[in-house]
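I would love for you to help me understand the pair of lines that follows before we discuss the fold together.
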Amino acid sequence: MNWVDKLIFPKMEKSKLNHRKERIFEVIFESDTFYGKLFNIILLVVILLSVALVMMESVASINERYHDLLVISEWIITILFTIEYAFRIYSVRKPWRYFFSFYGIIDLLSILPTYLGIIYPSSKYLSSIRILRLFRIFRIFGLTDFMRGGNVILIALRNSRAKIVVFLSFVTLIVVVIGSIMYVVEGSHPESGFTSIPTSIYWAVVTLTTVGYGDIAPVTAFGKFLASIVMIIGYGVIAVPTGIVTAEAVRGNRKHPEPQKNTQVCQRCHDGNQMDGSNFCKTCGYPLHQ
C-alpha cells in the first residue's frame, strides 16, 4: 500500500483496496460491463459538449452574450476531467505507463489548456484537442473491426517507413534543385515573385503537391515550361506513397491475419489490444480477470 492509498483509504485492508482499484479501473478503462459502457458514453457526451463550448466561445457574438456561462461551464467540465484523470492514474498498477501512453498524453493535454488560460488566455482554445479522446468510441461500442483496420494501417506505415523516407528524401532534393533553377530563370523578373531561393523552393513545394496558391507564378517561357513539368510530376508524387503503403498493408494481411480482439485493458502495462477469450495480458502476463 503506497502513501496515496493510505491518504485516501487509511483504514482499508490491502485486499479490499486492490479490489476497489480494480473496480474503478474496470469502469473507467473498459467498456464490457454496464457501468463501464455507461461511464464512457457519458464521457463522450461531455467531450462533445466541451468542444462545442470552446467553438462557441471563439464566436464573438456568442461569447459577448454568454461569456460568463461559457466560462463557468468550461471550468466545471475541466474540473470533472481533472478528477477523472486522477482516478485513471490512481487505478492503474504502473501510473507512468499510462502517463506516457497515447491516451494518457491526450487526456493530460485535454485539461492543461484551461489552466494555462489563466496565464495565456488564448491557449484555452486549444481545449478542442479533447476531440481526440473520441478515439475511445471504437472500443466503447465494440467496433473492433475499425480498430483492426487502424492497426493494419499503422503496421503498413511502420513496414514501409524505409521506402517512404527514401521517397521523401528524393522529393526534397527535387524541390531544392527545381527551386534553384526557377530562381535563376525568374530571378531577373521581380513581378514573378521568385525573389530568393527559399521562396522559389516554397513555390516548388506548393506546385509539386498540386496546391498551387498562385501567389508566385513564372512569367518567362522556360519558367512556364518547367512549371508544367513540376505539375505533372506532382500527380506521381501523390500516387507513390499511397501505393507503397497499400502494398505493405495487403502483404501484411496475407502473412499475418489480424486476430479478433476485445475491449479488455491490462491494469499493469495498459495494453488495450487483448485477444478474444484471453485471461492474461499478451504483453506482460498480468491476469485480465481478477
About this structure: The radius of gyration is 26 Å.
